[in-house]
Each structure stands twice: as C-alpha cells, then as structure tokens.
Specification:
- This protein is 49% helix and 17% strand.
- With 255 residues, it is of the alpha+beta class.
- Strand 7 and strand 8 form a beta hairpin.
Length: 255
C-alpha cells in the first residue's frame, strides 16, 4: 500500500509540474511574439503544444486523484497526492479552456466588422500606420473573401449578420456636433489610441492593441445627421489574420 501511495504522489507531482509548465508556455506565447522573438505561427504552435501538455498533465493528475480517493475510501488512511492531483487537474483545465473558448471555430472567418455593411465607414488617416506596420489585410471593405483552404468564397455581410445581429448603428436624439463629442469621449473611455478626428467630416479613427499577442486593430467611427438627430456607425478591422475570433464585434459592442 505504501508503494501505491508513493507512486500516486509521484504521479500527482509530475502531472502538476506538466500542467504548470504548460501554463508558463501558454502565457509566454503572446509576449514572445510581441517581442519579435517568435513569428506568429511558431507562437501559435507554442500555444497549441502548451494545450496538449496541459491535457496530458491533467489526465495524469486525474488518474492519480481517482486512485488516491479510492485508496482513502477503502480505509487506506490519508492517501498521498490528493491536493496536488486536484490542483493539477484544475490548472490543466484552465490552460485548456482559455484558448479553446476563443478558438476560431466559434466565430465566422471574418476580420472586418461594421454597423453598416451597405456603406461601411472608410479609413483615411489609419492608412499610413497600417501600411507602415505591414498590415496584410486590406483597409477596403471586401464583401466577398476567398477561403484560405480553397473552399467556397465567404459572403462577409451575410456571415456578420448571422453571427452578430446586434451590431447595428446607434441613433441619438442630439445634433451631429453633440453626437461627435460623445463619440469622441467614448473613444477616450475605451482607452483606444486616437489616430485622427475630423468634426467637419464626422470621422474619428483610432486603434487598439490586444493584451496577449499585441495585435493592432483599427477603428473608424462616422457621425451623420439622421432626421432630427444623429446616426453613429462603427467599423473595426484587424491588420493581420484571416479571422478575428470575434474580437472586432466584441469591440464594437463594448463601444
């Protein structure tokens, strides 16, 4: 019995160590890319292997936990490794869940989201920083996008409306000048980097850098008269990446 306890405790420690290593690799994948120590696809590869390691470690800990609990239930006394194994399962699940919850498969394969798919707000001032940063996505609104895997083309407006039906214009019962000031204030409240503002055109351009991988996305806001009030349209576009795992829609929704 002591031998079983010893092996169970050792397995729990190994499993926990593997899940902690996986957590460290997952957390490093983004900063290593931001510091240009890893290219994008190797960074994603590191994250993927971190998830595999987390699953393996969690399975080892789960087996050790079951054995330890069965040993305790059968009157074997205080089995070794129960707490360690339980912690390993928890860490492994967290490392697995975070990337899984934002995986591309949960979202439409688009990176350009707007409240007006018929007449999207256009970028002006953001064109220069996008070009200087090596952005691979066009600033123009592409209604039809070819699948990177050779499948059928994607209808961007159709995919957006199906996935994000709540992304619609905002109408305010105030004059355009007042609406522009409110829209500009909201940009500041969101913590975005202001690129340009033109009250005469009713145009505001800004960018936001994502926390983990440091992806830069650009936003253009348009304020227009709407009957006796104003209409505000927003467009958010990723600089790189075929899909955005729902980030642009989430940004517009928060704004």
């Amino acid at each position: 019995m002591e031998s079983i306890d010893r092996h169970t405790g050792r397995a729990a420690r190994w499993g926990l160590g593997l899940t902690l290593l996986a957590a460290a690799l997952a957390m490093l994948s983004g900063p290593l890319y931001r510091m240009k120590l890893l290219a994008l696809f190797p960074a994603f590869g590191l994250l993927r292997w971190a998830v595999y390691a987390a699953i393996a470690g969690a399975v080892i800990c789960l087996v050790a936990l079951v054995v330890a609990l069965l040993r305790r239930k059968r009157g074997g006394g205080e089995a070794q490794g129960v707490g360690t194994a339980a912690l390993g399962v928890l860490v492994g699940l967290v490392v697995f869940y975070v990337p899984y919850s934002v995986r591309a498969g949960n979202h439409p394969p688009i990176h350009d989201v707007t409240t007006d798919t018929d007449d999207p707000p256009a970028f002006v001032a953001a064109l220069a920083p996008r070009g200087a940063s090596g952005a691979t996505n066009s600033p123009e609104y592409d209604r039809i996008v070819k699948s990177p895997r050779g499948g059928p083309d994607f209808d961007v407006p159709e995919l957006q409306k199906k996935a994000f039906p709540d992304i619609v214009p905002v109408r305010l019962a105030v004059a355009p000048a007042q609406a522009f000031e409110q829209a500009l204030g909201a940009v500041s409240a969101m913590g975005w980097t202001l690129i340009d503002q033109d009250a005469a055109e009713g145009r505001i351009e800004a960018s936001e850098t994502t926390t983990w991988f440091g992806f830069v996305d650009d936003v253009v806001i348009r304020v227009r008269p709407d009957h006796s009030g104003s209409r505000i349209d927003v467009r958010s576009v990723s600089r790189i990446g075929f899909g955005d795992v729902g980030k642009n829609a989430k940004r517009i929704r928060a704004y």
